[in-house]
Amino acid sequence: MRHDDLNDIRGKILDRKNKLVDLTQKYISASEVMDLLQEVEAALLRMNNGTYGTCEVCGEPIEIDSLETDPLVRFCLDHMNSEQQRSLEEDLKLAMKIQRKLLPQMDVKVPGWDISYHYEPAGFVSGDYCDIIIPEVNHDHYYLVLGDVSGKGVAASMLMTHLHAMFHSLIPLDLKSNEIMERVNRQLCESTASSQFATLILADAFDDGKVEITNAGHCPPILFSNGNYKELATNGIPMGVLCSSAYNSSFVEMKPGDVLFIYTDGLSEASRNEEQFETDRILRLGKEFKYMESRQIVEAVKTELNGFLGGNPKADDLTIMVLKKI
Ligand SMILES: [Zn+2]
Q1: pTM more than 0.70
Q2: By Cβ atoms counted within 10 A, which residue in 6, 149, 296, 322 is the most buried?
């Protein structure tokens, strides 16, 4: 387990200990509280002697998702009793439900554009942030956001929900794209563990086909136009790394039939044996994109990826977004 993860979890355990100590002072006879306090003390002892995070039955590392959800857990998933397994699974399913509710409407219709996406966590929850935000004022433009938080699982999904909240509170302020990105970056720097960062693209699509793209270290989006393609260069560093990062936007003009394809590295780095999916296959498919609706494009890419993987599991969270000018 990484040192930062361990420190985060130690913080959670100490916090729990303080709360329990408070409780014992109010209800001295509560034996349940004393039992819990003993469990907490035992976890801190395991941290001090270096055995924290290993299963007491098999000695293998305990899954990080389990430790994030319950820092007192002492067994790996295989060696939890069925009641513990059920309770952890319920917690994770609840987290998954909450995350699903944060996703944008599936086939959102906005004038002049056809937009679809595919969002697929590698486990219960995803560290990808996918959003379509329609400002309440100024209805002539729409924001697409796609981010990828470092790591995956519960910790990454918590930062994803944080990103969601920040974008939804900043966009109504009618700021420029680079200002939105700079504010989000600063807040991330000030509020997250130093080990966490996010790559992210903000695309602001206007009715007339103009799209303003601001990219913080994310995989370059691909613009398909008239049978040609162009990978749009990344022009900023990931968010949450340097508080003072500045972001510059670039503009593309999209004509009817043009497609902007945005994805997370769960697509390009999906691998079978030693081979990666890369983007060549997308570029080949792209010749047909102008004849397809955005939903068909998403489905075609999913089919291509699943064919490539041939039943091998996806190791990372996957998100694909397609913005087509109509
Ligand atoms: Zn075990």
Answers
A1: yes
A2: 149
